[in-house]
Design goal:
Strand content: 15-25%
Helix content: 40-55%
Number of helices: 11
Shape: globular
Order of helices and strands: EEEEEEEHHEHHHHHHHHH
Low-confidence stretches: 159-165
């Protein structure tokens, strides 16, 4: 049985089968770490600026707050979500550092016996009552992460498909991720890649299902939300820091995306924080 993610528990399990395949129409990110275990079929996955192709028994390792998107044909997959708060409740800082070291690489390939071991651990997690303070989910998750982290320390842990990246798209993603605060035009990105902006737009949309500008603005909105929560900077200061030439355009775009002004968003998040403390 799936354990659907709830913020108060900081953990969740989700299983899914796609008979005809499913392509995410957008990039997304969340505050939780994600283990994407491919039980069958094949998927391509973009994690940050890395593109990998997953096969049966592969695990995609998606760090918290990292843009990602999957696509492909038939698949069956299991996903584990867990937050830093979940780990901090049960493990020491040193243990956490070791357990999440596997997220330094984008994917791992499990041997058949390792896959069976991981799936059995997940099945035991699903039988636990997460509402019970004495549940053993953290121990079972720790076993899974320990296995993955041990494998990630060896070069053989990388799947062959991890090397089969679309170099041009990966370079475009990398450049945008590094320079989204200062990019002024599509010509700048295209010039860096030595291609025309028309070619850039075509291959980027084909690979990601987003326009270059949509991806660029998604990164800027993510950074803006972080600044609104973690600083007391004005909306105009944040607009400039995120690469907007006009604070008015920033406010309009933000409201269109989140149905509230930047300062209203800050007030809402501050209120949520005070209620949980």
């Amino acid at each position: 049985m799936d354990l659907f993610y709830e913020s108060k528990y900081n953990f969740g399990i989700e299983t899914s089968i796609g008979d005809k395949g499913y392509n995410m129409s957008y990039f997304h990110y969340h505050n939780e770490y994600e283990l994407f275990i491919l039980d069958d079929g094949s998927r391509s996955i973009i994690i940050g600026d890395t593109i990998v192709n997953l096969s049966k028994f592969d695990v995609g390792l998606i760090p918290a707050n990292t843009f990602h998107r999957t696509a492909g044909t038939y698949f069956s997959r299991t996903i584990l979500y867990f937050s830093s708060q979940f780990l901090e409740e049960y493990f020491s800082p040193k243990a956490i550092e070791t357990l999440i070291s596997c997220f330094q690489i984008p994917t791992l390939r499990l041997a058949p016996d390792e896959y069976i071991y991981v799936k059995k651990k997940i099945q035991h997690m699903q039988k636990e009552d997460i509402r019970d303070p004495q549940n053993k989910i953290y121990l079972l998750l720790g076993d899974v992460l320990a296995l993955l982290s041990k494998k990630s320390s060896t070069p053989q842990s990388y799947t062959p498909s991890a090397l089969e990246t679309d170099t041009l798209i990966a370079q475009a993603l990398n450049y945008i991720n590094q320079h989204y605060k200062t990019i002024q035009s599509l010509d700048e990105i295209a010039s860096h890649l030595f291609i025309t902006k028309y070619h850039l737009c075509r291959i980027f949309k084909q690979a990601t299902s987003m326009t270059v500008n949509q991806y660029l603005m998604s990164l800027r909105m993510k950074y803006a939300r972080e600044l609104l929560i973690s600083t007391n900077k004005s909306a105009a200061q944040i607009a400039a820091e995120c690469g907007f030439s006009s604070p008015i355009y920033f406010a309009q775009y933000f409201k269109k995306q989140f149905s509230m002004t930047p300062l209203s968003y800050r007030a809402q998040e501050k209120q949520k924080e005070s209620e949980t403390n």
